[in-house]
Structure formats: C-alpha cells, structure tokens
Design brief:
The structure holds 2 protein chains of 2 kinds. By secondary structure, chain A is mostly helical. Helices cover 73% and strands 3% of the residues of chain A. The two termini of chain A are 32 Å apart. Helices cover 32% and strands 30% of the residues of chain B. By secondary structure, chain B is α/β, with parallel strands linked by helices. Chain B folds into 2 domains: 1-79 and 164-170 and 194-246, Rossmann fold; 87-161, no CATH class. In chain B, the strands form 3 sheets. A 6-stranded mixed β-sheet of chain B has the order 6-9-10-3-11-12, sandwiched between helices. The radius of gyration of chain B is 18 Å and the shape is globular. The chains are: A mainly alpha, B alpha/beta.
C-alpha cells in the first residue's frame, strides 16, 4: 500500500510518468522519432498549444473555463495579417498597410478586450461561464467568416508580413540532439516560467487557488473574486491572441476556420497535466507536461503513418482519458484523506 | 467608551427586512452573546460588523469615529476579526496559506513581489503553538480534523492584534473537549481586553463566558441585558416569542 505522501506525489506527477512511457513507446516504433528534426517539431508544435493552455490553466484554477479562446486565436492571426497586407489577390488583406508592430499591438489588444468582455459578462451579468464563452466562441468565429467572406488571408512575399511571421517562424539557435529551437518555443518556455512563478509565489496566484477552492471563503476574507475572474479571462484572451500571432508564422496562409476544434486539445492538455476542472488544483508545470504529451502523441502518430481518420478517434480517446484521470485524481485524493472528524474524536473522548 | 457602536441599523434584501432599527454596542474587555432563532438576523448583523455586507441605513462608529466598511479588509484594518461558522477555509490550500489568506507576507514592491512562504509558515507554527494545536503549517486543510480546522480559523484572528473578535457558532461542529478549549480561549480574549461577540445557539456557552446577552427576533433587537440579570429560561422565551421583550 502506498503511503499518503507517495500517493500524493504520484497523483501530482503522473503526467511525467505517462510522458516518459509514451515517448519511449514512439522511440521503439519509429526510427525517425528520436531525431533532431522530430524533437524540434514536437517543441515547435507544442508552442502554440502551450500558450493557449497557459491561459486556460489560469481560468481553470479560478474555477472557471473559457471555450472562446480558439476563435480568438483565429481572429488574432487573421486580423493581424489583414491589417498589414494589400487587398488585392493573392493576399486578400484589408489594404490598410498598417505597421506590423502596430498590427501586433492591435491583435493583442483585441484578444485582451474580448477576454475582458467575457469576464464582465460572467461577473457583472451573472451569466454562466459555459454559455457566455460558447456564445463568444460562435460570435467571434462568425465574425471571422463574415469579415473574410470565407477567403484566406495570405502574406506571400510581403516584407511587412514577414515581420508579423517572425514569432512563429524564426529559428533562434540550434542545440545538438534537440535540433533548431524557434523563437516561439523560447517565448512559450518563458511564458510557462513566469506563469509558474505567478501561480506559486505571487499573491495573484494564491488568490486564484483560493477562489477556485472555496470562492465564498475567499470573498469572506476580502478577496475580490469577480475582479480576479475578469483578469483571468483577460489574460486568457490576450494569450489566445498571442497564440494566433504565433500560429500565423507557422501556417502563413490564414484560413477562416483556423483553430476550429482546437479548444478540446487545449482542455485535454491542461487536464491531463493535472489541472482540475473543479478549480483550485493543478500547476503550470503539470500543464506543460500535458502539452508536451499531446505534441509527442501527435508527432508520433504522424511518423507511424496512422490514418488521419484514426487520429481523430485517438484525439477523442485522449480527451476521454483526460476526463477519466481528472475523476480518478478526485477519487484518489478522497481515498487518501483521513477518516476523521467527529466519529473518531468523540470515540476517543468516550474512551477517556 | 464603547469600542463599537451601531445605531439604527437596517438591512433589506429586496422586500425582506433582515434587520430593522437595531442598536448594538460593545466595550473592550466585554463578551456579548448574540442569540436568536434561525432568520432572526444574527448572521446579517455579524456580516455588517465584519464588512461583508453594508447596512441599508444606520451608523457605525469604531472607537468614537464613524466607520464605513466597504469590504472585510476595511473591518480588519480597524481591528475587527471574525471566525465564520463554516470557518471560511480553502481545503485545497495549506494551513499557513489559509491563515494568511488576503494578508500574505511579501517581499518586493507593489505588483512586483514574491510571497514569503518561510516566514508565513514560521509565524503560523507559532500561532498554532499558542493555541496548543498540533496543526502543522504545511498540511493541507482538507486532511485536517474539525479541531485543527478550528485552530486555523482562530489563528487568523491572532495575526494582527484584534480589538474585536466575532465568533459565529464556534462550537457548533466540534467535540465536547474542544468546546471547553474554545470557551477558555474566548474567556482569555475577554480577560486580555478584547471585545468578543459570540453568536451561538448553545445557551450554556453564552452563559458561561459572556457578560451580556442580546436577543434578536425577526430582525429586531428585543433584549440586551447583563447575563447576571437574565436566565436561560428567559432567553429561551425571548427567542421563541413566549416573552415579548426584556
């Protein structure tokens, strides 16, 4: 029987054990898996997902969730490029020729504004977060389609667009055995590091855990839960726009359905990494593990030439596994709790 | 001089009058029992004193100065601490994190800061020792017994030097032995010059440690008299409505 401490350690670090097992499995299945090119691809693919997962982790820990981020990401990518490139074919932009740095600012500001609006609707409007974020998901996606009339925006051979692509495109340096490290990977790594610090060592993070764990208690102690919730949605929106900017550099041509369905992968990444859907539990490092696991599985299946149809099935199964793990974590935690309180205390009293 | 003085306090929730023209005061070194049936307005009055609710009308003064509490932190700054009936604990956090919740020790400036985990753990351990509790600062609250949870909630009130301590049903969910400990702590607080308001359904507790008893019924204060001039029978009659007022 595992001791309480070991069980707790196992629950908290399950993701890293799973990651090692899955990684080893793919190494044995494909000779191309452990190559510099593939490791670099895993990390690069994890970067965009990672940015979205960071935002979602803040929201989940506060006891909420945000379905709208995939649409905000799509909008961020398309809006940025649209502001930069000419209106004529083949770029189909807005013909505004905005400075790319201003376009990046506009993208981030738009994301933060969408997130803040979502937070306001939930806190001031007292509306359910599921309905609000689902509605915003549809509104923003609909806006992208109406705005682009379904046509892609491209940045072919456009010097300003190249600046916009920099974050998702640029290689930073080479590490032997790991391959090329892109700016996106470094940015996402730094984002995880800063977010980890905020959650573990900053008052903001401490208050998010308190709100997610027992919102009523947090409010009784003077924590303004509604303000914090608006802030986490704003962070989530901002990071979704950042992910969009990052993704634009990878796909170059921005389709109106960019990022559609991605939200399930984001939830799976966070939850597999130990972030609870119930709120108040999970860490940024665990979420990072979830992101690396999903990226590893994605690349591994690709190298094993698994049919795209089966990949969909596997992705669905991964989401199921994530939910199962979340439920089991709650069960294991309950099992490891001491059966105390009144019965045992009263028994000891009657004995004395 | 009264430490806390409340005049003509009214609190309405829509069409419901939770409190109607309630006057209440308490001196330093005094323990007052606040009694009443469910829905009498005890919790509403406590929440107003603790800064969780703002009165619809009426005046509050602390040490002779008018006070307006827009949130619990305002009340805490004026030396008012509360132990809620449900203890207001976050099960997912450690004992020390709960003790310091909302008042974390930090190093740095403004928004750029770092929590001082070691200092908070150390101070919490001292507080638990003072409370003669075996609670460990790094233990998660969800793994604690009823008595340990109570110790965490009580430790919060000792972080600063409170002038007024509100206790909402502190003995409702603990064992007989722990009830005696809590009552001893209340007596100790009173004897060391603190004002204490005890909300309780347990008549024995109020008559054991309080100097005065105030009774609320349907949002109105119907009695406020020294314990030595009252009796459990009279208070029961006042709570149930068998007696009109005293």
């Amino acid at each position: 029987m595992l001791s309480e401490k070991r069980l707790s350690f196992l629950i908290d670090n399950l993701i890293w054990i799973i990651l090692i097992v899955v990684f080893t499995f793919f190494v044995t299945q494909s000779e191309h898996f452990l190559t510099e090119r593939n490791i670099s691809n895993i990390l690069t693919a994890a970067a965009v997902l990672g940015v979205l997962v960071v935002g979602q982790t803040f929201v989940l820990i506060s006891g909420n969730f945000d379905l709208s981020t995939e649409s905000t990401m799509g909008l961020g990518a398309m809006l940025g490029l649209w502001l930069i490139v000419p209106a004529a074919a083949p770029t189909f932009g807005g013909g505004i020729f905005l400075n790319p740095f201003l376009a990046i600012g506009a993208v981030l500001l738009t994301g933060a504004a969408i997130g803040y609006a979502v937070g306001c609707l939930i806190t001031f409007g007292r509306m359910h977060n599921f309905i609000v974020t689902l509605a915003v998901l549809l509104i923003v996606r609909g806006f992208i389609l109406a705005f682009s009339e379904g046509a892609p925006v491209n940045g072919f051979n456009n010097p300003s667009a190249e600046v916009f692509y920099w974050l998702g495109h640029q290689k930073a340096f080479f590490i032997p055995g790991v391959g090329n490290i892109t700016v996106a990977v470094i940015a996402t790594g730094l984002l995880f590091l800063v977010s980890h610090f905020i959650l573990q060592h900053h008052k903001f993070g401490r208050e998010l855990y308190a709100i997610g764990g027992n919102r009523k208690a947090a409010e009784q102690l003077g924590i303004n839960a509604n303000r914090r919730i608006r802030q986490v949605y704003m962070i989530s929106g901002l990071l979704a726009a950042l992910a969009g900017w990052m993704l634009a550099g990878r796909v170059v041509s921005i389709q109106s359905n960019l990022g559609e369905g991605f939200i399930f992968t984001v939830f799976a990444g966070a939850v597999i990494g130990g972030v609870s859907l119930q709120g108040g539990r999970g860490t940024m490092l665990g979420a990072l593990g979830g992101v690396l696991l999903l990226s590893t599985i994605d690349r591994g299946l690709n190298l094993m030439h698994v049919s795209v149809f089966w990949v969909k099935v596997i992705q669905g199964l991964i989401i199921l596994v994530a939910m199962f793990l979340d439920a089991q974590r709650v069960r294991l935690r309950e099992l490891s709790l001491p059966v105390v309180s009144y019965t045992s205390e009263k028994k000891s009293e009657s004995e004395t | 001089m009264n430490y806390l003085e409340m005049k003509d306090i009214t609190k309405n929730f829509g069409a419901i009058n939770a409190l109607q023209g309630v006057d209440f005061n308490i001196k330093a070194g005094e323990a007052v029992g606040l009694m009443g049936d469910n829905g009498a307005g005890k919790s509403t009055l406590m929440k107003i004193i603790a800064g969780n609710l703002r009165p619809s009308s009426g005046e509050i003064s602390v040490q002779g100065k008018e006070a307006v509490f827009s949130n619990p932190l305002d009340a805490r700054r004026l030396g008012i601490e509360i132990v809620y009936q449900d203890l207001a604990l976050c099960d997912n956090l450690t004992a020390a994190a709960n003790v310091f919740l909302g008042r974390e020790l930090r190093s740095g400036f403004g928004i750029i800061h770092r929590l001082k985990h070691a200092a908070m753990n150390e101070r919490s351990a001292e507080l638990f020792k003072e409370l003669k509790s075996e609670t460990r600062p790094k233990d998660l609250v969800e793994r604690m017994s009823g008595g340990q949870r109570q110790a965490v909630a009580l430790a919060r009130t000792r972080l600063s030097d409170p002038k007024l301590v509100l206790l909402d049903e502190p003995t409702a969910a603990i064992s007989v032995r722990q009830v005696a400990e809590v009552l001893a702590r209340i007596a100790q607080l009173r004897d060391t010059g603190h004002a204490v308001i005890l909300v309780s359904h347990r008549m024995g507790d109020v008559f054991e440690v309080c100097d005065r008893v105030a009774v609320l019924r349907r949002g109105r204060k119907i009695a406020d008299k020294p314990i030595r001039k009252s009796s459990p029978e009279e208070v029961t009659g006042l709570i149930t409505g068998a007696l009109e007022a005293a």
